[in-house]
Amino acid sequence: MSEDPFGDLDAAMGSGETASEPEPEPEPEDAGTDDAVESEGESESASAEPVDPREYPAFEFDETVHKALYVLEAVADEFDDIITYDVERELTRDHGLKGVTKSELHNAALAVATEHPEEIVERVLEQRGVDDEESK
Questions:
Q1: CA distance 50 to 74
Q2: Is residue 71's pLDDT more than 90?
């Protein structure tokens, strides 16, 4: 049996991709150097060059957790298209970011949703065909 409890989830959902091996996020080029052994205080004060935030992801992939989200296929497809073709393209082309990761994009999208819970409520009511005035 696979160690990944969600290994067959994508196949069951019909995405055509398997989730048995998640794609590793690219690590910064200097991640394997001896400098990584230094303590945090030493590495911050000893770094001669400031790190350009356009070059590296906002956080490391190993800081993330895998959570399953259950959505309609059409919504998932539209989300993937917007994230890939609109958001990622704008970040790379218009803002000069390099190495934009899916975990960064997904984290940002969910953070935006958590900042607007009222819109989530409105959308669920809309999906159910419930008029906001009727529910009061």
A1: 43
A2: yes
What's the rounded Cα separation, in Å, for the pair 66 and 4?
11
Q: What is the 3-state secondary structure (H, E, C) of the chain?
A: CCCCCCCCHHHHHCCCCCCCCCCCCCCCCCCCCHHHHCCHHHHHHHCCCCCCCCCCCCCCHHHCCCCCCCCCHHHHHHHHHHHHHHHHHHHHHHCCCCCCCHHHHHHHHHHHHHCCHHHHHHHHHHHHCCCCCCCC
In this predicted structure, the answer to whether residue 78 has a pLDDT above a threshold of 80 is yes
Instruction: Find how far residue 101's CA is from the centre of its chain.
Output: 7
Position 108 pLDDT exceeds 90: yes
Which amino acid is present at 71? V
